[in-house]
Design a protein that fits this description.
By secondary structure, this protein is α/β, with parallel strands linked by helices. Helix content is about 50%, strand content about 15%. The longest helix has 29 residues, at about 5-35. The radius of gyration is 22 Å and the shape is globular. The termini are far apart.
């Protein structure tokens, strides 16, 4: 006998999908607001209307009116029905307008846009299983990831994560040698080099275009204690590192075991390795929450395809969990592994010989 449908559940799920559709379509408008400086202008103007905002930003008033209403409907900005004005709350400005804020998230929608650009590639890859390398994605991914991750690194890297490692910050203050593997555009490398001027930093990434951007970013701030080189996690040549960092990169490697073994051979005797990984638990069901959902989406479209494009076949994914990483570290012959810190969005793992 066919089970009778629970129409309350049907309607509730339909509402959930409508909410997702609304968020997906509105994400494009968040990216437009970021690129056109609409959020920054709202912050400067205070309570305003479409005419004033369009004049401030050199944009078409009629589009701005619809954009404002969309943003108000989503709760991103406030609307005063009596004064008929729109405003950006200070708390929201930290997330949408202030690129120097540790909470700045607007560039995340640039990452999302890159996934839509590459959707056809992913459909084909689902069928063929050949993998998609980081370098094969739309350029929006590289710049969106740089800006999005930089916010988290700015808030935590030198203030929380490095101090959580045993004895590492003292070494960096005195003068140490550091490698940042999979550095991308160099956001994490530059933050560390700026904080610890007595230490010297090497940023390695296999993606030549990202390394060129990292060099540009370093020159813009006048860094003299950091260099960037094209090299993979398994073939960088420098050695004697007091600290080797993997910033949201370890789970992307085709063969993380080979990568960590190579790092071990390049590590000073008393050196440390720091893995910054997406927050996850070993049991999938414990990751079934909004952050886990986001990470599984990134894992499906970026992390696993990149890993699968390389030799090794590990395909850890962004939600591999600390125990799977611990197993690989043990296979590599390290004796010390600990979770130095856990945040709602990151795991900070410390490894020593």
């Amino acid at each position: 006998m066919k089970k009778e449908l629970d129409m309350d559940k049907v309607q509730a799920f339909a509402g959930q999908v409508i909410n997702d559709l609304s968020a997906g379509m509105s994400g494009v408008l968040v990216q437009i607001g970021d690129e056109l400086g609409l959020y920054g202008a709202l912050q400067e103007l205070g309570p305003t209307n479409a005419k004033k905002l369009s004049l401030k930003t050199g944009t078409f008033e009629r589009y701005i009116q619809e954009w404002l209403n969309n943003q108000a409907a989503g709760g991103y900005i406030d609307y005063d029905p009596e004064q008929k004005t729109y405003s950006l709350p200070e708390e929201h400005a930290l997330i949408l307008a202030d690129s120097n804020s540790p909470f700045f998230m607007a560039p995340g929608f640039q990452v999302v846009s890159s996934l839509w650009y590459d959707k056809d590639k992913m459909v084909q890859d689902f069928k063929e299983g050949k993998g998609i390398g980081w370098h094969q994605h739309h350029h929006n991914l590289f710049f969106g990831a740089e800006a999005f991750f930089r916010s988290g690194y700015r808030a935590n890297l030198v203030n929380e994560w490095i101090p959580a490692l045993e004895g590492v910050e003292d070494k960096l203050m005195q003068g140490a040698k550091v490698a940042d593997i999979g550095c991308g555009h160099g956001a994490s490398t530059i933050l560390m080099a700026t904080k610890y001027p007595n230490s010297f930093f090497y940023g390695f990434d296999y993606h030549a275009e990202s390394i060129e951007t990292a060099k540009l970013r370093a020159s813009e701030v006048g860094l003299t204690n950091a260099i960037f080189e094209v090299a993979s996690a398994q073939d960088f040549e420098e050695s004697g590192f007091d600290l080797i960092c993997y910033m949201d990169a370890f789970h992307d490697f085709g063969n993380p075991l080979n990568a960590i073994q190579h790092a071990k051979s390049k590590l000073a005797d008393e050196g440390s390795i720091m893995l910054v990984e997406p927050a996850s638990f070993d049991e999938p069901e414990k990751n079934f929450n909004p952050i886990g959902r986001m990470y599984y989406a990134a894992s499906t479209t970026l992390c696993v395809p990149h890993s699968h494009s390389q030799d090794g076949g590990y395909c850890l994914g962004a939600q591999a969990g600390p125990e799977r990483v611990r197993q690989i570290i043990g296979e590599a012959g390290f004796s010390q592994f600990r979770i130095a810190q856990r945040t709602p969005v990151n795991l900070i793992l410390e490894i020593k010989k």
